[in-house]
UniProtKB/TrEMBL annotation:
<dbReference type="Pfam" id="PF05256">
    <property type="entry name" value="UPF0223"/>
</dbReference>
<dbReference type="InterPro" id="IPR023324">
    <property type="entry name" value="BH2638-like_sf"/>
</dbReference>
<dbReference type="InterPro" id="IPR007920">
    <property type="entry name" value="UPF0223"/>
</dbReference>
<protein>
    <submittedName>
        <fullName>UPF0223 family protein</fullName>
    </submittedName>
</protein>
């Protein structure tokens, strides 16, 4: 990994930063191997508690996708649309 996660060290607590980084990490894992549907959805719920604004979410996820080429939106969308409770695997 040769990029940094978009985080707000000024306004977020240490726990909030951990929650946001955990979500980004789950998105990466979905592309690089696979991730449990329930885990990515739980990580997204925690992310949304830290970043409730839709515009801020789009900004942060856009920055993350620009740096990593991994889409938060597509990953969450696939997890939500998945009919089973197994693992999801993203492809580039």
């Amino acid at each position: 990994m040769s990029y940094s996660y978009p985080i707000d060290e000024v306004f977020w607590s240490k726990e909030e930063i951990i929650d946001v980084v955990s979500f980004y990490s789950m998105v990466e894992q979905a592309y690089e191997s696979s991730v449990k549907k329930e885990e990515i959805l739980l990580a997204y719920t925690r992310f949304k508690q830290v970043v409730p604004s839709k515009s801020e979410e789009k900004k942060l996820c856009g920055e993350f996708e620009k740096e990593s080429s991994y889409s938060c939106y597509q990953t969450v969308k696939k997890a939500r649309e998945s009919q089973d409770n197994g693992r999801i695997k993203m492809s580039k």
